[in-house]
Amino acid sequence: TLLRCINRLLEPSEGVVRLGGDDVTHVYGASLRRVRQRVGMIFQSFNLVGRLSVLDNVLAGRSRFNQSPVRTVRSMVRWFPRSERERAFECLRFVGIEAYAYRRAAQLSGGQQQRVAIARALAQEPEVMLADEPIASLDPQSATNVMDTLRRITDSRGTPAMVNLHQVDVAREYASRIIGVRAGRIVFDGKPGELTPSAVREVYGTEPEQDAELAKSTARKVVNGDREETAACPSLGGV
Q1: pTM given for the model
Q2: Long-range contacts of 138-141 (CB under 8 A, 24+ apart)
């Protein structure tokens, strides 16, 4: 919910959302499109067009916010200028998946599709990246590849990333700052080393004897991608 408020997929019922100092809480039409152009969004379910090629999916991220009548027609027939295609290939190379550029997105594994989604977001040249449970439906190795890619974005490009996670160990490993939210309230805000077992219990509302079961449940979600259950859980935001 917090990520969708930042990206204005949802309008907050109260409070203020600022992006780079600009109040974007109540913007609509062209102003809203400009806000979304500044924010790269990565979804748990990838949100790719499976019948299109990997390259065309990335180009869609490059073109959707800069539409004119001519560009709209070109996008419909999938004709893009050379500069746009080169930029899309650069994004695919960055996430290590350029070899699949002309393959249909539906033919890729879940981890590969998520990296395509990251490349699509990168193609926007966003000011900030938001990732909503980007590894919840992936196997452990694919999850590591995706998190490594997100960290490289922040390290090499200086683009901040806010990642919604339920995997405590992953948050500790990758985040420079962790925010724990429970029932719509911040109950933890600190560095990974400060996320003690008692702080985790405060976030998830568990007793010490329940911690082991929580860990097992979290592991199952990584493997099975249990979206309904994770959506109802408290969460950790890694920044």
Answers
A1: 0.78
A2: 138/110, 138/111, 138/114, 138/222, 138/225, 139/110, 139/111, 139/222, 139/223, 140/222, 140/223, 141/111
